Structure to design on (239 residues):
C-alpha cells in the first residue's frame, strides 16, 4: 500500500512540472457537455456546471482518501482528485465490459472517451481540515477558525477515459473569519449547513456574515475553481 502511495505521489509531481510549462491564459472551447463526466455528487459543483450550460454525467467515486505523511495541502488535493478521476475511469471500463452497463452507467460511455473531471477541496489551518465527522467536530473546527485566516485549496484532475491525456492542478484561496460568539456558533451548528463541507461552513450560505474578506477565487471557496478550470480544460483539449 505504501508503494502505491509513493507511485501516486510521483505522478502528481510529474503532472505539476508539466503544468508549469504550459500557457494557462486560454479560454474554454472545444469541449461540450455531451462528453464530460463529473466525478462528484456535490450539489454545488453540479450547479456550477449547469449554470454554465453544461449538464455532465454524474458518477460518484468511492476511493481511498488516506494521504502520505507530511504531504502538502496542494499535493494532497491533487492526489485525491486524481484518485477520484481514475476510479471513475475504472467504473466506466467495467461498465464497458458488460453489455448492459453497471450501476446505471451506460456500457458504451467508455468507448466515447469522455472527459472525466474530479475535484477535492480542503481547508488548511496549520493542518488539513476536511468535512466534520459530527457536531462536536464541526464545533471544534469552527472555534479554531474563528477570528483567524485559513486557506481553501481545491485540486482538480481532468483526464480522457481510455487515453493518456490528463491534467491536474490546485487552486488556493485565502479566507479571513470574523470572531463569533459561542452562542452564534451554536445557532449555526443547529442548521444543516456545516456537516457536508470542508471546514464545516458554506461561504455562500448563512455563514457569509462571519466572513471578513477573501483573497483569490470565490468559486474555489464554494468548492470548484471555475475560471482556472476553464483555462486548464482548454489546455487539456490541445494535448
Amino acid at each position: 500500500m505504501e508503494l502505491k502511495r509513493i507511485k501516486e505521489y510521483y505522478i502528481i509531481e510529474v503532472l505539476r512540472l508539466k503544468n508549469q510549462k504550459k500557457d494557462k491564459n486560454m479560454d474554454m472551447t472545444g469541449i461540450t457537455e455531451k462528453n464530460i463526466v463529473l466525478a462528484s455528487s456535490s450539489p454545488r459543483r453540479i450547479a456550477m456546471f449547469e449554470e454554465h450550460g453544461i449538464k455532465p454525467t454524474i458518477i460518484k467515486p468511492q476511493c481511498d482518501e488516506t494521504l502520505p505523511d507530511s504531504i502538502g495541502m496542494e499535493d494532497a488535493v491533487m492526489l485525491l482528485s486524481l484518485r477520484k478521476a481514475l476510479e471513475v475511469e475504472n467504473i466506466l471500463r467495467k461498465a464497458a465490459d458488460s453489455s448492459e452497463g453497471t450501476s446505471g452507467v451506460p456500457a458504451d460511455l467508455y468507448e466515447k472517451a469522455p472527459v472525466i473531471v474530479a475535484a477535492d477541496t480542503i481547508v488548511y489551518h496549520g493542518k488539513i481540515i476536511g468535512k466534520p465527522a459530527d457536531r462536536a467536530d464541526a464545533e471544534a473546527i469552527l472555534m479554531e477558525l474563528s477570528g483567524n485566516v485559513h486557506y481553501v485549496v481545491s485540486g482538480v484532475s481532468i483526464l480522457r477515459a481510455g487515453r493518456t491525456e490528463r491534467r491536474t492542478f490546485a487552486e488556493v484561496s485565502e479566507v479571513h473569519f470574523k470572531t463569533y460568539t459561542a452562542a452564534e456558533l451554536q445557532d449555526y451548528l443547529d442548521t444543516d449547513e456545516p456537516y457536508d463541507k470542508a471546514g464545516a461552513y458554506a461561504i455562500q450560505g448563512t455563514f457569509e456574515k462571519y466572513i471578513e474578506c477573501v483573497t483569490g477565487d470565490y468559486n474555489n471557496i464554494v468548492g470548484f475553481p471555475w475560471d482556472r478550470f476553464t483555462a486548464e480544460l482548454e489546455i487539456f483539449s490541445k494535448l
Remarks:
- Helices lie at 2-20, 43-51, 73-96, 135-145, 182-189, 218-222, 226-237.
- Residues 21-30 have pLDDT under 50 and may be disordered.
- The CA atoms of residues 115 and 160 lie 4 Å apart.
